[in-house]
Amino acid sequence: MANLNDDNSPASSMTEKVNTNIITLTRFLTEEQAKHKEATGDFTLLCHALQFSFKSIAYYIRRSTLINLTGLAGSANITGDDQKKLDVISNDLFIEAMRSSGKCALLVSEEEENIIFFGKVPVPDAGVSVGTIFGIHKLPDDSKGTKEDILKPGSELLAAGFTMYGASAQLVITMKGGTVNGFTLDNGLGEFILSHPNMRLPSSRAIYSVNEGNSLYWAEEVKSYFNSLKEPQNDGKPYSARYIGSMVADAYRTLLYGGIFAYPADKKSPKGKLRILYECAPMAMVFENAGGQAVDSNMKRMLDIVPADIHDRSGIFMGSFDEVERVKTFHKA
Ligand code: F6P
């Protein structure tokens, strides 16, 4: 039989090298579970349900223009944002996946005013739009599954991450004290494949990401900090600005390339804009586990902040370790 590898014809040089040892998210979760003797499998089952909802949302986003899912649904969510048809459908898909998993006790979502109670074990939170951010708390064994179970600092999260929906969906997940791993949805296989193992942020990078339209409302130290980035740095050049206006997309870029992402509290939004439970805390866990930092507008560690209610907000600065150190310097001054 001819050895295909010995064939030097032009056609063979175009042959795709097939990776036959693919680490799918399912395999990754199974292998992680095996490392923890005390694991009951509940977390793995919950992640399978999460994974299914991300795949479904990614599928509908890819087909949205074909099946008339673009545009507004005609309602506003609890925090005042117009709800897009995709937000509503994504939220419903997510809730059903969590309910049917049998492993989710209660759920907080940007799209829902109140906590949704399912009456079983752990807990994800979600904010759905260009991406889905999730944080999972484990309920204590004696818990009845109440609001208090969820009003906890991010440092107690069992796992956190996000999925960004694009041409191919990207899922980033980390567990308490663990590494950060990135998976890409292979649309053909229908599987999330480990594409970015052990993600680490560069310790510095001259990129800032903030809505500068709010600068009129910023505190003086915030203004001075951002102005300092526009001065020539050691290499003679100022920082570059990159702002998409979607936390998941801005965070994902920052995670890959480094820099700083900020949504500071300001005179217009004294508590900040982004929500602690399902935006700031899960992202802070991802950034810390990838070697970066995340602080609030008082320069307190984001993972130590306890939300006062389920939709409580905070200012946030997160990104490369040294870039966040620089923000702190301006706040000390
Ligand atoms: O909280 C929703 C959100 O769209 C985030 O994903 C994003 O970072 C932020 O709001 C953008 O806000 P703004 O349009 O005020 O810059």
| Topology-level CATH name of the largest domain | Fructose-1,6-Bisphosphatase, Chain A, domain 1
* Percent range of helical residues: 25-40%
Instruction: State the total count of DSSP E strands.
Output: 17
- Strand arrangement within the widest β-sheet reads 4-3-5-6-7-8-9-10
Top-tier CATH class of the largest domain? Alpha Beta
Tertiary shape = globular
Quaternary organization: single chain
Q: What sequence of helices (H) and strands (E) makes up the elements?
A: HHHEEHEEEEEEEEEHEHEEHEEEH
CATH architecture of the largest domain: 2-Layer Sandwich
List the ions, cofactors and other small molecules found in this model: 6-O-phosphono-beta-D-fructofuranose
**Regions with little confidence, pLDDT below 50 for 5+ residues:** 1-7
Number of domains: 2
Describe the structure.
The chain has 333 residues and is α+β, with helices and mostly antiparallel strands. Helices cover 30% and strands 22% of the residues. It has two domains: 25-196, Fructose-1,6-Bisphosphatase, Chain A, domain 1 (2-Layer Sandwich); 207-332, D-Maltodextrin-Binding Protein, domain 2. Strands 4-3-5-6-7-8-9-10 form an eight-stranded mixed β-sheet, sandwiched between helices. The protein has a five-stranded mixed β-sheet with strand order 12-11-13-17-15, sandwiched between helices. The protein has eight helices and 17 strands. The N and C termini lie far apart (75 Å). The longest helix is centred in the N-terminal third of the chain and has 22 residues, at 42-63. A hairpin with a 2-residue loop joins strand 5 and strand 6. The protein is globular, with a radius of gyration of 21 Å. The structure holds 6-O-phosphono-beta-D-fructofuranose. Residues 211, 245-247, 263, 273-274, 279 line the site of 6-O-phosphono-beta-D-fructofuranose.
